[in-house]
Structure formats: structure tokens, C-alpha cells
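Researcher: I'm preparing a figure for a lab meeting and need a structural model of a single chain. I don't have an experimental structure, so a prediction will have to do for now. The sequence is pasted below. Please return the structure as C-alpha cells so I can convert it later.
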Amino acid sequence: MPAHPAAANYPKVVSVHRQSFKPDPRAGELSLLRRIRAYAPGSASSGLRLGIGDDCALLGLRPKEEAAVTTDLSIAGRHFRLDWHAAETVGHRALARGLSDLAAMGARPVAAFLSLGLPRELTLARGRAKPWVERFYDGLLALAAAYKTPLAGGDLAESPLALADIVLVGAVPVGQALLRSGARPGDRLFVTGALGGAAAGLELLGKLAARSNKPSPPRISNQISPLLQPHLAPQPRLPQGQWLRQRGAASAAIDLSDGLSTDLMHICEESGVAAEVDAAALPLHAGASLEQALHGGEDYELLFTAPPTTRLPRSINGVPITCIGRIRKRRAGRPLVALLTPEGAQILEPRGWQHFC
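Model: Understood. Here is the structure written out cell by cell.
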């Protein structure tokens, strides 16, 4: 579901310089699969009964739980660039996108499955450096360990283009999943964290890459690293989603992958309501503009609604919670989503990311 907010800035094909790679005697699918299996830890959760090694993984849910399943596709040239993004970053982001979907449902992760297509040269060592594929797994598995999400299987194939297709399986008590369809007139509208940081970070990363003018990702100094973190290493809001679900605090929820303006429209359409957003209340990330907060996408924060009688803390597990608006009844002649500014109410068009547009 989530897509890159600025894919139009990416070339359709990212070239890899074959002559810069040296033959690796360990190359080959079976050898690479053994290395991946050695990289991936054993069962990291009680939900994984049998992981990598057989034709299928075996998962076990707790009594009175149902499965929450999401898929996400990352493609070189659309969702990442080999000359902009380090392999560890690509792996982290590939998993974070799917975990964010589980967070929006209030689900706990059970297992991840990864289908990876790569040009052969990305599986080979380059001098003393690890192969790109191993560094990709370093990034993915570090995040997987942080959120106790075992890699339970997948597929591997040679491909002219690097791509990662991830499937996340989560679990949620029957009938308790947070949905997009539960918002009601009078509910308040909230977001976790800060907005616009991913889009601002992408813009900055592009400038750094243009300045370095090299086929490899630019070096990032400690000074500017915090400005790039929302884009390079987004953190899925799993503890926050589970907190909201466990306490019945949210009436509807969605993760902010395509941009606030677009994702809020999804809630309005699924719930049959309208919404107002207070521009002055939006929590902007350092260096982000209002435009980036509204339309940039890939913040992977949670956007949720709550009844007016619900008391929410200022933060959940250390992540700030901000009220940014309210849910209204739909009325003829009024915008479905309005942005309240000092100049008055304006129509908030859904200008986040959409494929095929």
C-alpha cells in the first residue's frame, strides 16, 4: 500500500556498474539461501512454529485471535535508489512499511516473509565490503529484532531490477482491529509524532546525492543525520497502535504512508464522514514545511480518531500525541476535508502519492 511520495524524481531504471564487482566463489542461489538462513535468527515469537527450511512456515495464533496480513512492494527506481540509499536503509524501510500497516490495525507482529529479486552483482562481495544483499538483511533483521518479528520464509530470484516484496502476518483479538471505517461526527482527530520529516529528508538526500555526483549513496554527517532519520529509518508505531486498541481509545486509524491529505480522505470515505484539519495544530518535523506535512507522505505515523469523551495522554510510549482537528457530518456544498487557516477554511485536496497518476 505505501508508496514513495516523490517517485517522480526517480529514474525508471537504476543502473549498476557491473565492472566494479569481482567474482565471488560463494555466489549461487543455494549458497545465498544458506547465508540468509544463517543471518535470520530462529523463532523470535511464540507465533512462529516452523520457520525457514521447509516448503511452508507454520504459524500459531493465540486463542480468540485473528490474522492481520499486509503486503508491500519496494522497487528500485520507484521506492529507493541504489545511488541514494544504503543497502541497510533499503532493508529497514522495506520492513518498516509493512510493520506500519500492522500498527494501524493495533496488531502484534507474528512473522515476516520476503521475496527478493536482485541483479547478480548485488549478491557478490566488493573488495572487503559485504555484498549489498547481506547489508540489506542487516538493516531488515535489525528492525525485525527490535519488534520481535521473525523472518519466516520467502523467495529469491535473479532479476534485472532490485525489488523486495514483503508480507507481514500479525495477530489481533477477534473483532478488535482498528479500522478506517469507525470514525463518527464529533470525534477528534489525532496524529502521533511529527509530520513532514520524511519528505524533507528525501529532498535533502537528493541535494546531497547531486552534490557528491557519485554512483554510491552520499556520506551523511552527524550534523544532518537527524534531519534524514524520518526518511532513512522510519519507526513503525506498533506500541502506540496496540495501546490504542487495548484501551478501546481509537474509533478509526490509518498509517500515514501516502500523505496526510490522502490518508485522511481514506478515513472519510470508509467512515462516511467529513473532516477539518487545523493547520496551526500540525506538529511539523524540524526542517519540514506545511506542504510536506500535508502531502509529503512516508512519515509512517498513525492518524486516528477518538470520541470526544476519550481522555488521551500527551504521549504514548514516549511518542507525542497531537489533536489536529475533528470529524464532521457530510453536508452538501461543503468540502469533504477542510483545512482551517488564519485566512479561513480551504478545501484540502488529496495530493499525496498515488501510483499511475
